[in-house]
Amino acid sequence: MRPRCVFLGLIMAWVVAIYLPSLLLPAVGLMPLAPGQSLPAATWALADEVAPLAKLAYAAILSTLLLGVRRLALNRIALIAADVALACIAMLAVLALLPEDWSRGFGVGLTGTRFAAGPTLVYLVGAAFSGFTFSLVEANCRSIDDQSPNR
């Protein structure tokens, strides 16, 4: 495990987990666009509205789970599957455990209902891509490090 590669993967996974659902919610019609608002502007506004605690909670839970699975001797395909599954578990944990008052712009704080079908599916899609992104970024970073003449 290379800390630099894990950190880079976690940052990119976090970005995907926040911005992909913020793009998909208005794109599929679950969050209406304000009159004259473009999809990129709506995406940015929705991602910005997500409560800091929701963002930090996802990052903390995801980091803990992904670092834990790195201790197992899994082959590459199993590791990718585990990363995707653990990212979905992290998202479900945040959606389930974060109080409504601390969920501004996210989950129950966005819809008023915990686990509303449409938004929950969008959040899980974002989480799955987040886990996949982590796997790809970490593997790519390790590959670049392995090819470095300094090694």
TrEMBL record:
Keywords: Membrane, Transmembrane, Transmembrane helix. The keyword Transmembrane helix applies. The chain crosses the membrane at residues 7-30, 50-69, 76-98, 118-137. It comes from the Bacteria. This is Uncharacterized protein. It comes from uncultured Sphingomonadaceae bacterium.
